[in-house]
């Protein structure tokens, strides 16, 4: 019997390297309702991976051993009895936990969605692209002409958010770190860029955009969350799409007036975004992203650092978590 490789969580530990091992798994024929997909590329979610390794994700209960990874694209190699919606040779994407960091994924056909090709672009749009679209439209509920601030704007999620916001007719304030990333987000259409390495975000917003943010989409937390919430406009919406700053030390304990005092007199709101709880929005998001791409208003950018093979996932996670990447970090499987 042949085997394939996967990255499997074997124990809880502080880092993914300590917690997960590359293992060989026996292949099998797909059962009724299942398909077998040979994964070509996987997408990296480094912060999530590390938190899973630490058993620190409250909404995902894992018991080692369990396969890691979420996002992948590949080609259907075999279909089980009763499967009619997919055929051998179809390019498909999967965004379910446990299906990403492995060379082969044998799972129910409903786990997969058809994509144009098993390439990086399809991977990014089917996973991170959908997340960005849902965060922006379903949760942020941005309107054309509004001002939208985006943290980590040069990252996998952020660079799609910038383009989706511009395509929707919004003014975009992109927050990122360093001149290279600033130039990148400008090339995507950002109207203003705040380089947090050159100037505190709070200072820049208070000077140039006081109480002007109709929508803020934040994946960082900490001082950036505070700066966004301080500068919300009337009826402004702050979307919490992550808290990367709290990854190492746990939730920061802050002594400050309750957030209600910032929100009440502006009729503003803070909204949590968790893509896995918003699956009803995914089909419409996919369709709109495809239309934007066809119209030349959206491009999916992969980080240009090369990672290949399941064993390279460790390095890819470290690279993403270093804060140096631009675009989506991917691994060729």
Any idea what the CATH superfamily of the largest domain is called?
NAD(P)-binding Rossmann-like Domain
Estimate nothing, just give the exact number of structural domains.
Answer: 2
Strands, count: 15
* Order of H and E elements: EHEEHEEEEEHEHEHEHEHEHEHHE
Count of individual helical segments: 10
What low-confidence regions span 5 or more consecutive residues with pLDDT below 50? none
CATH topology of the largest domain: Rossmann fold
Terminal Cα separation, in Å? 20 Å
- Helix proportion of residues, in percent? 25-40%
CATH architecture of the largest domain: 3-Layer(aba) Sandwich
Q: Please identify the top-level CATH class of the largest domain.
A: Alpha Beta
Approximate strand percentage: 25-35%
Class by alpha and beta content: alpha/beta
Please give a handful of descriptors for the protein shown.
single chain; Quinone Oxidoreductase, Chain A, domain 1; Rossmann fold; 2 domains; 6-stranded parallel sheet; 10 helices; 25% strand; globular; Zinc-binding dehydrogenase
Give structural notes.
With 333 residues, this protein is an alpha/beta fold. It has 2 domains: 3-118 and 302-332, Quinone Oxidoreductase, Chain A, domain 1, CATH 3.90.180; 130-277, Rossmann fold, CATH 3.40.50. 29% of the residues lie in helices and 25% in strands. The chain contains 10 helices and 15 strands. The chain has helices at residues 16-19, 46-53, 120-139, 156-167, 179-187, 201-208, 222-230, 260-263, 282-294, 313-321; strands at residues 3-9, 20-26, 34-43, 66-67, 71-79, 91-95, 104-108, 112-114, 147-150, 171-176, 192-195, 213-218, 232-240, 269-272, 330-332. The strands form 3 sheets. Strands 3, 5, 6, 7, 8 and 15 form a 6-stranded antiparallel sheet that branches. A 6-stranded parallel sheet has the order 11-10-9-12-13-14, sandwiched between helices. Helix 6 (201-208) runs parallel beside helix 7 (222-230). The longest helix has 20 residues, at 120-139. The radius of gyration is 20 Å and the shape is globular.
């Amino acid at each position: 019997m042949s085997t394939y490789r996967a990255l499997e969580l074997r124990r809880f530990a502080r880092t993914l390297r300590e917690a997960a091992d590359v293992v060989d798994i026996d292949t099998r024929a797909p059962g009724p309702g299942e398909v077998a997909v040979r994964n070509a590329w996987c997408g990296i979610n480094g912060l999530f991976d590390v938190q899973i390794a630490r058993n620190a994700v409250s909404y995902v209960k894992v018991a080692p051993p369990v396969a890691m990874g979420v996002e992948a694209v590949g080609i259907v190699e075999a279909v089980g009895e009763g499967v009619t919606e997919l055929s051998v040779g179809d390019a498909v994407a999967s965004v379910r936990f446990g299906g990403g960091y492995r060379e082969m994924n044998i799972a129910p056909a409903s786990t997969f969605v058809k994509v144009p090709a098993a390439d990086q672009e399809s991977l990014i749009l089917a996973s991170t692209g959908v997340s960005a679209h849902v965060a922006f439209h379903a949760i942020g509920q941005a309107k054309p002409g509004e001002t939208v601030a985006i943290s980590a704007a040069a990252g996998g999620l952020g660079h799609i958010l910038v383009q989706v916001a511009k395509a929707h007719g919004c003014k975009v304030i992109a927050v990122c770190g360093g001149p290279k990333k600033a130039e990148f987000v400008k090339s995507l259409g950002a109207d203003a860029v705040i380089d947090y390495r050159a100037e505190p975000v709070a200072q820049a917003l208070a000077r140039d955009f006081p109480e002007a943010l109709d929508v803020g989409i934040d994946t960082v937390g900490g001082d950036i969350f505070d700066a966004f919430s301080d500068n919300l406009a009337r009826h402004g919406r702050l979307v919490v799409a992550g808290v990367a700053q709290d990854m190492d030390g746990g939730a920061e304990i802050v002594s400050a007036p309750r957030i209600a005092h910032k929100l009440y007199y502006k009729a503003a709101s803070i909204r949590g975004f968790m893509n896995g709880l918003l699956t009803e929005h995914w089909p419409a998001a996919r369709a709109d992203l495809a239309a934007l791409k066809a119209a030349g208003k959206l491009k999916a950018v992969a980080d240009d650092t090369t990672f290949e093979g399941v064993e390279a996932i460790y390095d890819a996670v470290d690279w993403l978590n270093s804060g140096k990447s631009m675009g989506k970090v991917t691994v060729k499987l």
